[in-house]
Amino acid sequence: YTADVLGKYQLQRPNADNGHKASWQILIDPDKLEPDGSTSFTVRDTLSDNQILDPSSVRVYGVRSDGSAGAESEAELPDDAVELLYDPDQNTLAVTVTDTADGAWNYSGYVIRYDTTFQGNPGDTVYYDNTAEIEGMAESEKTVTDSVYIEESSGAAEGTTAAVSVYKHDQNAIDETLRGASFTLYALDTGKDTYY
Prior knowledge:
Strand content: over 45%
Helix content: under 10%
């Protein structure tokens, strides 16, 4: 499934066409977990400060192989098999998977996928990294390092456009939304240094 207990990959590089969004994938081989006989594991993924996690994009899948080369099927894990925690101060996502039956893993591999968006000023090159590891297994640590040039988005003869994404979720549990949360958006008139 994966040569090591954990593999970390960038599936989509950020660029102006995709809104400076990256897609990430982490692969876990449960047969290589330590100690042998574990019934759960936690993957901790630390994002660089210039990335914003899209909580709604986090998905965890179990993978089965039918024995043929490359023939695998994925199934999204049920909520009771996955715990998602996000620490906004450390910009860290922790995913705990508890998915065993009779002391054996239900799948031959596990996949965690999610998206991040990058912050930066137009014209800047932003350097970033993501470091994932399985808690308690220091040798499992994998880091992806790259950079993205932040281009201005432009409209058809209108000039620069901007976008705002607001994610409302519990501070520590990203899979728990905050019902009734409201936000006020203000615009800044830079010529007058006033908000309206």
